[in-house]
């Protein structure tokens, strides 16, 4: 017997047995169950299993946080349970039976943007590093940047933009691919579709506003002309184009005979989509995206911007629990394309820090408890690096009051961030490293927000614990 046999058996028993498992898979740290009857799972007893660091339900899946050893534990569990290995996509399909319409829409949006996150994180780090060497005056008594004094750093600065441009300016390629992948259409044609939205022969989206009507190139068909405008960094036009292409291809496959399907289906799905993307979907998507970004930006910069910031900072962590936070990715990317930066992402990074700080306080409160530290220390580290789930579900929500303390700290930090006009160049880099994504002129005020997001949650968590504001099951009292 392995060391995972006993906890695997306990988890199987408390989750309702093999007959209650419709599908099961795992990700980097969690077991993901689709249960026949979620009410049969005894959450309290499951969370009492030593290897389990917390549980939560999201997107129709009952998720059990195990940690980095989840893959080995998963193999032992499926062998003991007698259930077959299930892919993440199959589990998601099964989970949708437990979702309402809004949850399904959020799940679809998450499926589109989740595969793009590694690229966005890399892009954010690259833009942040370019900020440090190119924008911050570090030398000659604060008058010159590294780029201005060194040819080497100037070369690095220029070279790194090759990657940054590929990620952010050509983002529609990734989005149309992700939509095609999600919908079950041809992924390579999704990539081709995305390229047609950002082709070098098109006028750059950022140059349209300053261009005269006669300066915009056109495709001239004699009876009609179509402006050759690109949609670099645009989110909504790419999503709309990807959806249209996928719907066309999937439905054409059903009616066109297999003998000619390979020739006819790609042509009849791709060509009309590209045409409609530049005539209808692109302009409409651009207007929708501009409207959304204008509304959000107006709300943040109005006289009541502090109230919007306070509300967003306070509720962002609960949004993560529901999965609704995935919507902010599209809004952030749209703000970046229109405003050359986003004020939302700094608040998200500060919320990450606040949750980690509440866990840090719990480490201090339960400093004599080794069992608690095994869960809380890794959770705090991952939270400060931008991954909040182990901290939120493994510690803060279990106790209750640390979660509230983190929400309050996040709220105050968000007000400071928005009140100071803090903007991020990119998204994807959360927690403490999030400062790398902040525009250099705003780094000092963001650092102030970081201090607030560390101090307030920590102090409030300690105060709440002394007030017996919540239950502290692991604390050993003298």
Structure description:
The chain is mainly α. It has helices at 5-14, 43-47, 70-81, 88-95, 101-113, 117-134, 146-149, 151-168, 171-183, 187-198, 236-255, 258-301, 305-322, 327-339, 344-365, 370-384, 389-399, 401-419, 443-466, and strands at 21-26, 30-35, 54-58, 61-65, 218-220, 225-227. The protein has three domains: 5-99, Gyrase A, domain 2 (2-Layer Sandwich), CATH 3.30.1360.60; 172-285, no CATH class; 301-466. It contains 19 helices and six strands. Helix 15 runs antiparallel to helix 18. The longest helix is centred in the middle third of the chain and has 44 residues, at 258-301. It starts with a helix and ends in a 12-residue tail after the last helix. Keywords: Cell membrane, Kinase, Membrane, Phosphotransferase system, Sugar transport, Transferase, Transmembrane, Transmembrane helix, Transport.
């Amino acid at each position: 017997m392995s060391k995972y046999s006993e906890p695997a058996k306990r988890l199987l028993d408390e989750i309702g047995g093999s007959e209650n498992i419709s599908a099961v898979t795992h990700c980097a740290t969690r077991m993901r169950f689709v249960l026949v009857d979620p009410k049969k799972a005894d959450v309290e007893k499951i969370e009492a299993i030593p290897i389990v660091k917390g549980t939560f339900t999201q997107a129709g899946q009952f998720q059990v946080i195990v940690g980095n050893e989840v893959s080995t534990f998963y193999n032992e569990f499926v062998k003991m349970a007698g259930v077959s290995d299930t892919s993440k996509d199959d589990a998601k399909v099964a989970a949708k039976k437990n979702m309402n319409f809004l949850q399904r829409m959020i799940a679809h949006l998450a499926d589109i943007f989740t595969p793009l996150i590694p690229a966005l994180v890399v892009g954010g780090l690259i833009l942040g590093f370019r900020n440090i060497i190119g924008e911050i005056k570090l030398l000659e008594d604060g008058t010159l940047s590294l780029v201005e004094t060194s040819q080497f750093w100037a070369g690095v600065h220029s070279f790194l933009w090759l990657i940054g441009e590929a990620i952010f300016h050509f983002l529609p390629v990734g989005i149309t691919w992700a939509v095609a992948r999600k919908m079950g259409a041809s992924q390579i044609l999704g990539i081709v579709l995305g390229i047609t939205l950002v082709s070098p022969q098109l006028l750059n989206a950022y140059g349209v506003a300053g261009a005269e009507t006669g300066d915009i190139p056109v495709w001239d068909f004699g009876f009609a002309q179509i402006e050759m405008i690109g949609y670099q960094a645009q989110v909504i036009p790419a999503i709309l184009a990807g959806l249209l292409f996928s719907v066309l291809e999937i439905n054409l496959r059903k009616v066109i005979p297999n003998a000619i399907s390979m020739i006819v289906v790609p042509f009849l799905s791709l060509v009309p989509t590209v045409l409609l993307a530049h005539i209808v979907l692109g302009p409409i998507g651009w207007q929708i995206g501009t409207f959304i970004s204008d509304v959000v930006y107006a709300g943040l910069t109005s006289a009541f911007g502090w109230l919007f910031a306070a509300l967003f900072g306070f509720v962002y962590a609960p949004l993560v629990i529901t999965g609704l936070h995935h919507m902010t990715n599209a809004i952030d990317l749209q703000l970046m394309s229109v405003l050359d930066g986003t004020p939302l992402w700094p608040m998200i990074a500060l919320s990450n820090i606040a949750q980690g700080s509440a866990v840090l306080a719990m480490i201090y409160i339960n400093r004599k408890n080794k069992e608690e530290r095994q869960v809380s220390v890794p959770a705090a580290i991952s939270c400060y690096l931008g991954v909040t789930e182990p901290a939120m579900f493994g510690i803060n929500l279990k106790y209750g009051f640390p979660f509230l303390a983190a929400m309050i700290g996040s709220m105050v930090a968000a007000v400071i961030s928005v009140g100071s006009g803090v903007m991020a160049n990119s998204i994807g880099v959360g927690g403490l490293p999030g400062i790398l994504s902040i525009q250099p002129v705003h780094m000092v005020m963001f650092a102030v927000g970081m201090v607030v997001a560390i101090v307030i949650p920590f102090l409030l968590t300690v105060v709440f614990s002394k007030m017996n504001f919540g239950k502290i099951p692991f604390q050993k009292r003298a």
